[in-house]
Here is the input.
Amino acid sequence: MTTDTGGPGTRRSIAAQLRLLGVRPGSTVLVHAGLRPLGFVCGGPHALVLALRDALGPDGTIVVPTHTPENSDPAQWRNPPVPVDWWPLIRSEMPGFDPAVTPSRFMGVLAETVRGWPGALRSSHPHVSFAALGPAAERVVAGHTRADMLGEGSPLARLYDLDADVLLLGVGHSASTSLHLAEYRCPGSPRERVGAAVRTAEGGNEWVEWQDVRLDAGDFGALGTDLEATGAVRVGPVGAGTGRLMRQRAAVDFAVQWLARNRTTEDA
Here is the structure.
């Protein structure tokens, strides 16, 4: 596939499209990306990171989710589930999360490319970490609390403080992690017990558990459609695909109200 210019996507052409979409020089942007819908990009994810940095300039910061969903309680696994008699072994043998080496999973190749980029920093959460590259990186990833993992103690709240943007490249609102922050800001959100393996100071593994909000992205697609209807989302071509850019504060504030109207206790 090719871009609307008739050739392959390049660092230069993607950066130009990002600027037209409204990426703000010097801003902080949380990026969720699926590369396949963007078509052929010369240089792949490497070129896409460079294009993002070109559009943001030297004062801008890229943030990506580097979650590790397999580092979770096997009692909650559904796709696929595992036998009950496996659970104790998985909990005892799961490698403890190490921000320096533990790969993300299901987050896409762009997220992994940013995670491994020289100078990138990563938060310490064993289940839902984020990586950031740029001047605001430390402020974004520092102090990521174990409980309240996508709430006020998370990088999502720090992005809200920074008036960051959210950029969806080739993916829809169902992938927008920021909308989970709204779940934490809705009174009465259901909670559950969560577990993960962490790395001890001695280099071993320890299984830890905590109470947290039960996350549910099942209605984020519908939420995003209604958000776009307000005009809060800029939509435009990126490569052969579609980019969506929005202010994170606007998305989260809208989502808090939307969830309060559209979710019931039975839904939770």
The chain has a mean pLDDT of 94. The radius of gyration is 19 Å.
